[in-house]
Known about the structure:
By secondary structure, the chain is an alpha+beta fold. It contains 22 helices and 22 strands. The strands form 4 sheets. A 6-stranded antiparallel sheet has the order 7-8-6-11-10-9. Strand 17 (475-480) and strand 18 form a beta hairpin. 27% of the residues are buried. The model is unreliable at 579-593 (pLDDT under 50).
Amino acid sequence: MLKSKRFYLIAVAVVLISNMSYIDYLINKRTYLNEKLVQLQTNFENQINSHKLIADLFYSESIKNNEELKSLLIQIEKDPTQADDARKKLYNYFYNTYQYLSSKGFAVFHFHDSEGKSFLRFHKPEKYGDSLTALRNSIKNIVKDHTPRTGLEIGVYNEEIRYIYPIFDGNSFIGSVEISYRPRFLLNALQKQMGGDYTLLLSKETIDNKILEKTRKKSYKLSGIPNYYITKETDGDSVFNFNGIKNELLHTLGLNQPVGYVEQSYINPSTIFLFTPIKDIEGTQLGYLVAKISSDMPNWILYTQLVKLFIWMLILLIAIYLFNRTKKEQMRSEAILEQYKYAIDQSAIVSKTNPQGKITFVNEKFCQISGYKQEELIGQSHNIVRHPDSADSIFTHMWKTILSKQIWRGVLKNRRKNGEDYYVQSTITPILDKDENIIEFIAIREDVTSIIKHRNELKTDKQIKNVLLDNLGTTIVVQKDNEILYANRPFYERFQYNHLQELTRNIKRIKELFVSETGMALSEVQRQKIKDKLLSSSEPQKVHMLEKDGKVATIYILLMKVPFEQGHFYLFKLLDKIHDVPSVDAPATSVAMPSSNYAEQLKISESKLRLPANIHKGLVTKFIESMQKNTHELQLALNVKNFDNISYIAHNLKGSASTLVFETIATLASDLEEAAQKAQEEPCKQYADALLKELQKLTTAHNESTTDVK
């Protein structure tokens, strides 16, 4: 009967472990697919948005306020007979721009008039005048509401990712402009980022309604999934075959949700299919972006789970083996426990008490250190060895701790039977029954009398040293291995810090306390110069330091190098007045400024970024606007001493300036970030003021360069 029950329990455990392993495998696989779906969706949106940034900048810099363009569009509104002439002028005016857009992947550059008719296709300049409002909702709606559009759209001949913007003359809508590119360009970018193959799975109903039949037969093919076409352009080699997951797709693709599938291959890398929904330019569900990626991860997840299953089974076998040996081990453990008890009794001071605090057991060590016999201790409380100097609060806390079933640790001062003092390091542990009730307390102690007495002697020596140094009448600072170890009381009474912890938390070396004659922070080079002078001279050297009230004090420092063991202590004596002392004053200005010839830096920036002049100027303008906002926020943060916010603003400013190759601003922002991280208020103010001056210089140089171009 017992064996049958044991076999049943083992069988249940095997089934439970197997099911848990399978569920864990499914969860890990789904987590991996979800991560890949998020990565695909993020990269897809980033590609759309990165091209939108170029399109937005192009529109704002070249189209939005282009008076010549507006005059041409107004001209054809008033006199349609001038359309051909206006079209030629417009083509010549934007030809170089079209070449630049083409190099960025924008194959289509298209102007429309205010009624939604094609005015000029740069890719097909000979084709114009056709009405687009009946064929494309994006044109129909921009004519209606004059609102920009971005997204994928199905046209008469193909699908494209379009960026469409309105053109105004004052408040009057006079036309629109469109730049777009083929999805293949975007899919190629995704392929470089994530590897694998990519295609578009498009709604059959939408393609049938939009695309001309001749073009549809040429450019699209059935995907094998009902109600969806696949573009031949993105699947020219027919690499997408959904037969293995077709049945699952029939249900899930109708939900318009991201979904991933794995075609498991147990030897070769598995194939992952990722489907992420895509909408058209007007927000209507259009189909799916599909990725087909080879990956070893599904196999790794499976193999890992098999290893886990094997380990769990092995653990189960070990548990069964250990269970069979429980009785033998239990007997052996009890014997070992008795030996442990004997070892503790021979080395530690042990006692037991009942919940009321009465002693029920003491070992021989307890009797030896206390001077009492065992029969004198049993039944008594530990007050029999309590020293009169011990505070009641110690025992109140001790009883509160152990009665709450926690372990109490501490050092207690006790008294022997003959009146001598002794100290013990005590650990008191409550012993609980199966119902978590306290049945007794066990106290294990170690004699630390010699340690405590030695510590008290050292404490007395330290107090004597401090009293002597604090009353010398001279300020003393001790430094070793680039770390301040000590400063006496006169130092804290006069200067900015109140105790050693505060001092060493803010600075490591005494040279960091030195300032210029005007109170400004010194650079590291200037501080090092003073240090070198102190080390090389036997005479007191003049420096400047800030007192508690913020005033700059002239101090004369005499450095003494005191050998100790394998190194040296440096003893700094800070004196108020010494005659005929050579000065090592640092210059008043402590912030070293790099070159800031912004006319030259603007040329270098434009050359290194290799952007068209109008786009580069637009980027610089936006940087100046951002920097104006940042400097304002810096001043607010400085007013409330929010160093975390100052560090954050400086870090972002450093990155933007580095991108545009403005080395002066990037260097100052880096210095400001470092000062903010150290919570140094004065250097932060200096660097913030310097950044404001650099902003003014950059703004002036940028305005002058813009005026020169005009």
